[in-house]
Write a structure and sequence with these properties.
The protein is mainly beta and 522 residues long. Helices cover 6% and strands 40% of the residues. It is built from one helix and 40 strands. Strands 1, 34, 36, 37, 39 and 40 form a six-stranded mixed beta sheet that branches. Strands 2-3-4-5 form a four-stranded antiparallel beta sheet.
Length: 522
């Protein structure tokens, strides 16, 4: 893969974008003359796999700012910043001295900052162009396996624990915050959590031997801490205001399957601790999954048991659910269907991504094969041009994007399952059509019928289906992900109003593209 330096990004991306638009609209012009389908191979600048080639990612972070979303991807000893809204182009990439331990991606008062740690204790901080900030990198005195954590103290600082039992808090000039580092009594194996007590951020961290610590910005311990438990913790504590009193609670699971929920005073909440069937090695997630307006606590065990608890420590009806493989990542909570309550997403070591509704039901189109044993939680990225969320999953050579609309869990939309075909009925031509044209929005049930012949690939091929207006502006993404050769029915879920008029639907599969003109009526 060719590395493109950041100061060349803008003109190069502009050239690529103009090249894509010229070829696409040339195709559209021919299509409009015949009001039909135009198919064929297009030059390489039109259709590319949307992710550059990496080894399997170790960490993925997303940051949203005024210029759009950006992805930070760590693989081996390399950190790459991607702009996923321009074909996932590489904005910049940098190499560390050794393997990446963790990432943080933040909006500081001075702009976007990426921070990475390596396993030998190196700490790096880059600006939005990928240039090291003054005073960096820093070298810690012990090895590190945890990701850095951003804290809004005095313009922003980064907290990093190490295996020597020290918790470092570094300012953006690379210097320690006064009163830091703090020496704990044992190795720190997880990243720090940041809880809010009143208006004050509090650093929360666990050490070997089952000790929970909480520190103020001065480096002094919060009253009642540290607390010693008869347990072992390896995951970062989860924090959130579950009671609505303005002070956040701490939730942490242990290797004996005990899950604790306590206040920043150290008091354990009524109904807790609770017991799950096996070790908890990941951070719980907080979110409203049953639509009652209150956050639940979603806990995942290493053996793949997923259990949401309410504030009283009761498992929600329809749960727990299980996955066939080990789960080494925290659950991601996201609203896929636009209704009340969020869905629960997890990835497993067996190479699958799983999804459940708040009732514990498996939506259509799930689980999804991702072909990589994942320790990375799914990440949600919002496309700047359409405002549509996408799920970012790890892939064997980078990341893969899955449109939330493409895997919409509503039961009444058109099935996206590939129709069963005999060899005689498999498509021989790459074709695209709408299930109705004109398309009347109020009638619902809208879908794209896409035929992918075997000569475009015998296995899954990365495919995108997008909608453009007559000026060439992309207004919607119908599908992004891998599709096997065959007949596919892809539902078009309306995420926002689209005015009546003439539009073009374009499908790109591998290096082949096809377009069709449609008339939309409200």
């Amino acid at each position: 893969m060719v590395s493109v330096k950041s100061h060349l990004d803008v003109p190069l991306n502009h050239i690529i974008s103009r090249c894509r638009n010229w070829i696409f609209w040339k195709t559209i012009f021919i299509s409009s003359l015949v009001f039909g389908i135009v198919a064929g191979s297009s030059p390489e600048c039109v259709a590319q796999n949307p992710t550059p080639e990496f080894s399997t990612p170790r960490s993925i972070k997303v940051l949203n700012d005024s210029s759009g979303d950006f992805l930070l991807v760590a693989s081996a000893n390399k950190v790459s910043c991607l702009n996923p809204n321009i074909g996932a182009t590489v904005s910049w990439e940098n190499h560390l001295e050794t393997s990446v331990a963790g990432l943080a991606f933040v909006n500081s008062p001075n702009g976007r900052v990426a921070v990475a740690t390596d396993v030998k204790g190196g700490v790096y901080a880059w600006n939005s162009s990928g240039k090291l900030l003054d005073g960096w990198p820093r070298q810690l005195s012990a090895t590190v396996t945890a990701a850095p954590t951003w804290i809004n103290w005095g313009g922003g600082v980064v907290a990093i624990p190490d295996h020597g039992g020290l918790v470092h808090v570094l300012k953006l000039d690379g210097e320690n915050l006064p009163g830091w580092p703090i020496q704990t009594d044992a190795r720190v194996l997880s990243a720090v959590g940041v809880a809010i007590m009143g208006d004050e951020p509090i650093v929360v961290v666990t050490t070997e031997g089952g000790v929970l610590w909480a520190f103020r910005d001065s480096g002094k311990s919060v009253d009642g801490f540290p607390i010693k438990f008869d347990a072992e913790f390896i995951a970062t504590p989860a924090v959130g205001d579950l009671t609505g009193d303005g002070n956040q609670e701490i939730c942490i699971g242990s290797l004996d399957g005990t899950v604790r929920l306590l206040e920043l005073s150290g008091r354990v909440l009524p109904g807790w601790p609770v017991q799950v069937k096996s070790a908890v090695g990941t951070t719980p997630s907080f979110g409203d999954i049953n639509g009652n307006g209150r956050d639940e606590i979603v806990v995942v065990t290493r053996e793949g048991e997923v259990s949401p608890f309410d504030i009283e420590g009761t498992v929600l009806p329809g749960w727990p659910q299980t996955t066939p493989g080990l789960v080494l990542s925290s659950p991601t909570l996201v609203d896929l269907d636009g209704f009340s309550g969020k869905e629960v997403l997890v990835t497993s070591k067996s190479g699958w991504a799983y999804c459940w509704s708040g009732k514990g039901e498996v939506p259509q189109y799930w689980p999804r094969k991702i072909n990589v044993a994942s320790r990375i939680s799914p990440v949600i990225q919002k496309q700047a041009d359409t405002g549509i969320d996408r799920i970012v999953l790890p892939a064997t050579n980078g990341v893969q994007f899955v449109s939330v609309a493409s895997f919409h869990p509503q039961a009444n939309i058109v099935s996206m399952e590939k129709a069963s075909e005999s060899e005689e009925t498999k498509p021989s031509v790459f074709s695209l059509r709408m299930n109705s044209n004109p398309l009347i929005v109020s009638q619902g049930g809208h879908a794209v019928h896409l035929s992918i012949p075997n000569n475009l690939g015998s296995t899954g091929v990365y495919t995108t289906v997008e909608v453009f207006d007559i000026s060439g502006r992309r207004i919607s993404e119908i599908f992004s992900g891998e599709l096997e050769p065959g007949e596919h029915v892809l539902p078009w879920v309306w995420n926002r109003p689209i005015p009546s008029g003439v539009y073009f639907v374009r499908a790109v599969t591998g290096k082949n593209s096809i377009a069709s003109k449609i008339l939309i009526l409200q």
